[in-house]
Design goal:
The complex is a heterodimer of chains A (323) and B (337).
Chain A (H helix, E strand, L loop, with lengths): L1 H9 L2 H20 L2 H26 L7 H14 L5 H24 L5 H20 L4 E2 L7 H4 L1 E2 L2 E2 H19 L1 H11 L1 H6 L4 H27 L1 E2 L7 H11 L11 H21 L3 H34 L5
Antiparallel strand pairs in A: 1-4, 2-3
Helix pairs in contact in A: 2-13, 3-8, 3-11, 3-12, 3-13, 4-5, 4-6, 4-11, 5-6, 5-11, 8-9, 9-11, 12-13, 12-14
Chain B lengths: L3 E10 L2 E8 L2 H11 L1 H16 L6 H26 L7 H17 L4 H26 L3 H20 L4 E2 L7 H4 L1 E2 L3 E2 H19 L1 H11 L1 H6 L4 H27 L1 E2 L7 H12 L10 H20 L4 H22 L3
Antiparallel strand pairs in B: 1-2, 3-6, 4-5
Helix pairs in contact in B: 2-13, 3-8, 3-11, 3-12, 3-13, 4-5, 4-6, 4-11, 5-6, 5-11, 8-9, 8-13, 12-13, 12-14
Classes of the chains: A mainly alpha (323), B mainly alpha (337).
Chain lengths: 323, 337
């Protein structure tokens, strides 16, 4: 019971999630709570979770990655475009591409001393250009029917991609909680100076976070490509901002050193249910874009305000003015 | 302004060192100026490359054409420069460009006159700028993310207003702004761009407000303690940036006589590149609008060259991304803290 209370306190998002689920269940329950809708919803969630995890990882280490959407689309394009050379090869190349872009991001941020969002804004445009050149702005259709199992298939009632993604989540959770590099990431993001003085290799830690993020974005692209059995140039447009919002809702912070895997999953579930509910109610797509923007702005603002309050409290404590 | 540097010989009388100052010659001044503005070399180099690669590059028509094309980006970059000097960004300029044109054209269709519609277009830009400013001053959140958020918000507004259709301006005299030429030679939009650049440079260098801007950008804490009205100035710079973006939107709309929801897409990124190439730092506290004019011209000449050499659109994207990365890397090395 105590543990449950602790989890609830740590994840304010659960309250938000409950409110959303209750609201949609009451208003449009007969569409929302059907098996087929929940099935589709969980499939959709499995494509978004890797991106939110990518952002969570980078934000824990005190960074930000805007290039995830572009890497996603390039990952999808490579998976489909190289399929004639073998599915495994195509998937491996796509993953390698994602990790390589993560490496470039990490190098720019650490060795290049560029602010993370500026550096990744550059790679975002660059990768998008590479993707448009590679695909010649045309959709690429897949040739292997068997490959669609990984994105569009189901085992019983459960979609395959959500199983894959949950396994990945478990691995990343263990990585974050129980390994040295995972804990180093929290230390570097929380207080880089203290981490440096404690002998943590900041360069390697940040580079690792960015590379994991690149790989995760590519994974999302691979799963999406498998689901659609094609790749289009529209994949991943603006999904970077949506992923940032999901990560912050899940407890990550722009100030760094905060966030976890469970939070990222809950953040994605919350935003996906919001989108799903809006679609079921019949909110027009133009308005949905606006609502998404308002969600992003509020999330970023609340994060900044709470960071400001924490700083204020720390100062008060430091001066012995504890309230 | 004359620059004074100390002479090597120092006479001392009564134990007080007296330093004699020597006026620097004009040549030394020019050299110093060139050292501080590597962007000029890049521009000269690119013009040289252009002239050797393409025979039409150095014709008067082509040069005027380049100036005309970059003027929209240039006007946006002016507001962006002011923001960058204070250490802030505005990524919402791209869709403000669209919003201003849409507001103007739609109010014209509702029967508003020329000046009323233009004023409303500018007011729309100012409103978004005000929203940005209020959000950033109140929450102290990352300006980049907040303005990306408002950018999408404005985009959705653009979509709702236009219903994804193209709308045409009904007032013919509105088209003068983008198409008209002074003495049949220089476009008015180019004139607006250059005048704005020089005027703002004067304000930046010679007025109290200008110095406050630099102070806030280079050391916000010190600026606050020395009594610079930081929040008020931040708010005003965002409003100003919104207005310049709206002005650019009006120029763009009057050029084609029509408007669409995603007009101006990508101009946020380009304006950042233009500012940083020109020598305005992303870390704040350094830069100027005349430098940005050079940066904008570099970008204009580059894309003109790419078009003249038949480079496809996708490859241009790669070029822009790589140049941006290169430029911010150099910026990071120069302005290390």
């Amino acid at each position: 019971m105590k543990r449950l209370k602790q989890i609830l306190l740590q994840h304010n998002v659960i309250i938000l999630l409950t409110i959303l689920i209750l609201f949609f269940s009451i208003t449009i329950g007969k569409y929302f709570l059907t098996g087929i809708n929940l099935h589709n919803l969980s499939r959709q969630i499995s494509f978004d979770i890797p991106l939110a995890l990518a952002l969570t990882f980078v934000m824990i280490a005190g960074g930000l990655d805007l290039s995830v959407g572009s890497v996603l689309s390039m990952g999808a394009a490579l998976t489909m475009g190289l399929q004639s050379n073998g599915t495994v090869f195509a998937v491996l190349v796509a993953m390698a591409f994602g990790v390589a872009i993560g490496f470039i991001n990490g190098m720019l941020v650490t060795k290049g001393r560029v602010v993370p969002f500026i550096a990744t804004l550059g790679t975002m445009t660059f990768v998008r250009g590479v993707m448009l050149t590679y695909t010649k702005q045309r959709p690429i259709a897949g040739t292997s029917e068997a490959f669609t199992f990984w994105g569009a298939g189901s085992i019983g009632f459960i979609p395959v991609p959500i199983i894959i993604v949950l396994i990945v989540c478990l691995i990343l959770h263990i990585l974050l909680k129980y390994t040295k590099i995972g804990r180093n990431m929290y230390a570097v993001g929380g207080n880089a100076d203290a981490a440096f003085l404690a002998g943590i290799n900041i360069f390697r830690t940040k580079l690792f976070a960015f590379m994991v993020a690149g790989g995760l974005s590519a994974l999302s692209g691979i799963l999406l490509a498998s689901n659609l059995n094609s790749s289009t140039v529209h994949l991943g447009l603006q999904s970077n901002l949506w992923a940032i919002a999901a990560a912050i809702i899940g407890g990550a912070s722009m100030t760094g050193g905060k966030g976890n895997v469970l939070g990222a999953i809950l953040g994605v579930v919350t935003l996906s249910i919001l989108t799903n509910g809006m679609n079921l109610i019949g909110v027009r797509s133009y308005y949905q874009i606006g609502i998404r923007a308002i969600v992003l702005i509020s999330v970023v603002s609340i994060d900044a305000i709470s960071a400001m309050n924490i700083r204020k409290q720390q100062l008060m404590q430091a001066y012995g003015l504890r309230q | 302004m004359e620059v004074l540097t100390p002479k090597s010989t120092i006479k001392t009388t009564n134990n007080i060192p007296e330093i004699e100052f020597e006026r620097q010659g004009n040549v030394a001044k020019v050299i110093r100026f060139l050292k501080g503005n590597p962007a000029l070399f890049i521009l000269a180099f690119m013009i040289f490359v252009g002239a050797t690669l393409s025979p039409v590059f150095l014709t008067v028509n082509n040069i005027l054409n380049v100036l005309w094309i970059v003027s929209v980006l240039g006007i946006v970059a002016m507001g962006q420069t002011i923001l960058l000097i204070t250490g802030n960004f505005d990524m919402s300029v791209s869709y403000i460009v669209g919003l201003a044109g849409i507001t103007t054209v739609l109010t014209q269709l509702q029967g508003a006159g020329l000046f009323v519609s233009i004023a409303l277009g500018l007011a729309a830009g100012a409103t978004v700028g005000l929203l940005n400013g209020i959000l950033i001053v109140l929450t102290k959140a990352n300006a980049f993310l907040i303005t990306l958020g408002t950018s999408i918000l404005v985009y959705s507004l653009n979509l709702i207003l236009t219903q994804s259709k193209t709308w045409y301006s009904t007032i013919d005299s509105f088209l003068i702004l983008g198409r008209g030429k002074l003495f049949g030679l220089l476009h008015y939009s180019v004139l607006i761009f250059l005048t704005l650049g020089i005027l703002l440079q004067f304000i930046l260098k010679k007025t109290i407000v200008g110095r406050h801007l630099f102070a806030i950008g280079s050391n916000p804490r010190a600026a606050y303690l020395s009594g610079a009205p930081s929040n008020k100035i931040k708010l005003l710079t965002y409003v100003f940036c919104g207005v310049t973006a709206a002005l650019a939107g009006l120029v763009m709309t009057s050029r084609t006589g029509s408007t669409v929801a995603n007009a101006g897409e990508g101009i946020d990124f380009e304006s950042l590149i233009a500012c940083v190439i020109g020598g305005t730092s992303l870390f704040g506290g350094k830069g100027g609008t005349v430098r940005t004019i050079v940066g904008v011209l570099i970008l204009g000449v580059l894309s003109n060259l790419l078009v003249l050499l038949n480079v496809p659109y996708e490859a241009q994207q790669i070029a822009k991304g790589s140049i941006f990365i290169a430029v911010v890397l150099i910026d990071g090395q120069i302005h290390k803290r």
